[in-house]
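Contributing new records

If you add data, match the layout below exactly. Sequence lines come first and carry their own label; structure lines follow with theirs. Keep one chain per record. Anything else will be rejected by the validation script.
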Amino acid sequence: MDHHRERHDRILQMREAGESLDEIVSALEISWQMEEVVRRMVRKFETEAILSARSSRFLEEILREGNCGGWKPVTGTGARLT
């Protein structure tokens, strides 16, 4: 695994553990020039989590209503047309 990927994963883990952006920057000894990059990464993680949760709720509602229009859930990959 390359250095960038390791740092990316570490930032995600720290954020999921509830650490603030300032704590993350300090713990990883990130230079002030890179602070904005960390902020954008964290914003991306949070946006992806929100969109994923919203998508899951929407799919559950469709399946619960039985209005799938031929779509059925496929474990681990969402839904597909059968």
